[in-house]
Amino acid sequence: MTHSEVIQSVSNWFKLKPDVEIVTRFSYSFPVPDIQIQYTDGTILQIECKPSNATRREYLTGLGQTIAFYRHSDKAYLALPSKEFSSMEDFLWPNFVGIILVDGSNVAVFRDPVKPKGIKPKIEKIKRGYAYYRDLKINEIYSVLLELKDSSYTVQNDPKKVDDVIWNGLQKIRNWKSSPKSNVLNTKLLLRDLKLFDFSMFQVTEIGKELLAMDVGDSEKLKAFFRKQFLIDGNYIDIIGIIQELNDEYDWFESTNFFVDLLSKKILQEKLATQRTNVKRDLTDIIRIFKELEIISSWKRFNNKNGKYFILWKNILNLIKFR
DNA sequence: TACAGGTAGAGGATTCCAAT
DNA sequence: ATTGGAATCCTCTACCTGTA
What we know:
Layout: H1 3-15, E1 20-24, E2 35-39, E3 44-49, H2 56-68, E4 75-80, H3 82-88, E5 98-103, E6 106-111, H4 138-150, H5 152-157, H6 162-173, H7 180-193, E7 197-198, E8 203-204, H8 206-212, H9 219-233, H10 237-249, H11 256-269, H12 279-292, E9 300-301, E10 307-308, H13 317-320
Parallel strand pairs: 3-4, 4-5
Antiparallel strand pairs: 1-2, 2-3, 5-6, 7-8, 9-10
The chain binds a DNA duplex through residues 127, 132, 134-135, 174-179, 181-183, 185-186, 188-189, 255-257, 277-278, 281-282, 284-285, 287-288, 291, 298-299, 301, 304-305.
């Protein structure tokens, strides 16, 4: 089994459980698990997946990764095919690492983890299995991040100022007159979810620095960068997968509204967000950024109002080919 | 504090219709 | 048949406000 096949099987298995409300690759902080599960009671489970026929060393790396998950989860599991588990069992003894065995679509918990003592995980409940996003265009995200870098001395000395700095950055590019609080917050959440700024250390992340080192004028490069951040780190790739499923199922949709309705329902079915989340509202902005990044086409109409969005695979294949 | 939801109206797409 | 452009319809953005 490949890495992504293991992820698929385990994800599908958890989605069937009625008390599981979110199954996603997305998480707020490092280290990023292959799968994060959230139960209705708020319990968070993080899982590292390993494929067949990897080196023995790789399984041990997975073990280490799994242990690190206790920074942010209640339970941590290593998922791997049973053949590989039996040859590695002697080494996978730490009982605070749970083991999930995967063979094709068969999934079984071999052992549940015993909660380790001496560490208090910082649990961050999530509401969506994808990045929170409102309003901003990519060059605006860049500008705000640049402002944060330019004022890093101020922010480091007085973290409370971070809001002012962001608002200043926004003022330079937008005519927003009111609601600074809401707009600043929306911006912060996006920077966090795209892993561009670390709000626990109050500094630009390595990925953020990568962005700032780029030439703003090179819009193609900028777009490529943000495609990766939104699709991979923001986990919008799962939404793309669902759009493709709908496109396969329907020749066309009677309106954008009808399409977005179907899409939001499917996202909920796939447990990418909680039932309480207004996915449809999120999608208006998500579709906007998909178009800006040339991840999907504009709404292509066929006759009177029937139409669909096409996924521009040529622009994103490089991101998913070898995962 | 931490997100979430709403909407006017610009601007784009399509249709309609008359003129060439 | 084709074109121009006015009328109409639809989509989407940019900004605004609400809630726990």
